[in-house]
Specification:
Elements: E1 3-8, H1 22-31, H2 38-57, H3 62-72, E2 75-80, H4 93-105, H5 125-135, H6 139-159, H7 170-185, H8 189-201, H9 217-237, H10 253-257, E3 264-269, H11 294-306, E4 316-323, H12 325-331, H13 347-350, H14 354-364, H15 375-378, H16 381-387, E5 390-394, H17 396-403, E6 414-420, E7 425-430, H18 445-456, H19 462-472, H20 480-483
Parallel strand pairs: 4-5
Antiparallel strand pairs: 1-3, 4-6, 6-7
Length: about 500
Amino acid sequence: MPITHEVRVHPSSANLPRTEQLAWKLAEVATDPADLPGEVVDMVINRIIDNAAVAAASLLREPVVAARGQALAHPYHPGACVFGRSSELRVSPEWAAWANGVAVRELDFHDTYLAADYSHPGDNIPPILAVAQHTGADGAALVRGIATGYQLQVDLVTAISLHKHKIDHIAHLGPSAAAGIGTLLGLETTTIFHAIGQALHTTTATRQSRKGEISTWKAYAPAFAGKVAVEAVDRAMRGQSSPVPIYEGEDGVIAWLLDGPDASYQVNLPAPGEAKTGILRTYTKEHSAEYQSQALIDLARRLHRTHPELTDPANVESIVIHTSHHTHYVIGSGANDPQKYDPRATRETLDHSIPYIVAVALQDGDWHHERSYAPERAARPGTVELWRKITTAEDPEWTRRYHSEDPAEKAFGGRMEITLTDGRRLTEEIAMADAHPLGARPFARAQYIEKFRTLSDGVLEPAESARFLELVQRLPELTPEEVVGLTVAARSGLLGTVRNPKGLF
C-alpha cells in the first residue's frame, strides 16, 4: 500500500531533516528497485509508440522546426537523437530532450493525467530517452526510468494543485523527469534529491502560457522542463546542491507560490518494494485536442449521426455544456477569454476552446489534427454562428467525478443541453472518451500502432515505420546500441520542404 506523506511549510529554524522532505521521499521512490509488472512494461512501450506518432505528425510545424534547428546547432558525441533526423546524427542530450519534447507536445495529442492538477506524463519520455541514448543505457534501464517519471508525475498531480495558483503544470514535470533520469542511471538518493530540487526551482512558471492568446510556447514549456531536468541531473552528479527544503521552506514553493505557510498536502507515494504502476492510471488521446474535450468530441460525433439537423446553426437556439469546474474555467466559456470565440485565434487557442471544438465536431462528424484547425475551417460563417451559441456551465456532480479517486467514477465528460429553434430540447451526456480504458473503444497495442501508422503516413518511409515498430516492441531486451534506434527519420527531402529560421546558434 502507498505511504501518505504530510507535506507542510517549516521555518528555517526547524532545520527540517532532508529525510523528512518531499524531495527526498521522491528520490527514495526513484532509487527503490521494485520489479515492474508486465502490464507496466507494455504500457511504457505503448507510450513510446504514441510519442513517436505525434512527433512524426508535427515535424513540419514551425515550433518543431525551430526547436530542431536549435538542437542541431549543438552536435555532440556520443549524444542523443533528434526526431526526424538519422540516428547517426547526435546532439547534446539536453538539446535532444528539448527538440523531441516540442515535437511530442506540439499537437496536444499524447497522453494525459488529470487530478488536483493537469499533466501530460508522456513529456517525461523525451528527456529520459535522450539521456539513455547519450549514456549507453539498455532497454531495461530505460523502462525503469520512464516508470519512475510517470509514477512521480501521477503522485504529484494527484496531491498538489498548481493551476489553482496560476502556476504552470511543468512544475511537477521537472522533478518527475529528473527522478526518472536518476532511476535510469542508478544514481544515489542524495544526487537525485538535489536534481529534483534544482528542477523544481527552475520550472515554477505562470500559466499565462495557457491563457488568452495561447502562443507557440505551449509546446515549448514541457520541453523546457525536460531540458532543465537533464541539466539539473548533470549538476547534481557533479556534486552541486539545490535549495533546501525546496517544497517546505518558509520561502519555498508551497509558502509563496501555492497554498501558503499554513498549507498541508497529503502526498501518497509507493512504499519500499511496491511496484511503480502510476502509468496505468494515465490515458492517451484519440483526438488532437485538450483532454477534457475528448469525450465531448465523441459525443458531438455521435450527435452528428443521430441528429444531423444540429449541423445547421439556423436550427440551434443554444447549446449549454454542463461539465466540471476545470473544463468550464480552462477550456470553456468560464475562462472569460474572448479569444476562445475568435475565428482568427491561434491553433493553440482553438485547441483550448471547447465551444469551437464541439461546433466543428458536430458539423463534420470527425476530428482531424490539421483540417479541424485550419484557418479557413475556423472562419466558415456557419461554424462561427454555431460556435457562438455554445457555452459551458459548471456542474458540481461533474466536478466531483473529475476528482474522484474511484477509477470507475472518475470522468472528464459532460452533459449537453441543446435547445432548437423549433422549441425541442435534447439532452445527451458522456462520461468517458471512447479511447479511455473504461470507454466504448479502449486503446490497446493495436490502436497505438494504428495511430502511429496513420500519423506517420507520408512522413516516414514504410521500411522506417516497420523498423521502429519492431524495435520498440522488444524494449526490455534492447541493447544500448538498439536504444539509439528508438527514434524516427523522416523520408528523404521532407524536412527540406520547410524553411529553418536562423537564430543565435
